[in-house]
Amino acid sequence: MHELALDMIRVIKSFAGEENGLLSRLRYKREVQEFVLEVRENHDATVLLTTHDMEEADRLCDRLAIIDNGKNIAQGTPAGLKQLIRRNGDEPTLEEVFMELTGKTLKEEEDVLEE
Fold this sequence. Notes:
Elements: H1 2-16, H2 22-42, H3 54-60, E1 64-68, E2 71-76, H4 78-83, H5 94-102, H6 109-114
Antiparallel strand pairs: 1-2
Helix pairs in contact: 1-2
């Protein structure tokens, strides 16, 4: 486990030493995701991950909880949550599951500017 901590420190230090441009943030995010996948695959460890990125959650999580305003709306496997709102045989994304279960919508850029 000591090696895992050192690997994570290396990832964090490599990000901290760079400019915070878009490319460095994307590379850092990818390195953290690869680290999480490595921990899951090679060690008997539980990883607690918080994210707003539903694609990331789908890729990295065996189980997840959808939390909205501090309330646990739903929990389960990504596939199980997707089955909650399956329509016409099409599998929804976790983002669509989140929107459906929480009643949230994405606002168009024009609408945001008008508010």
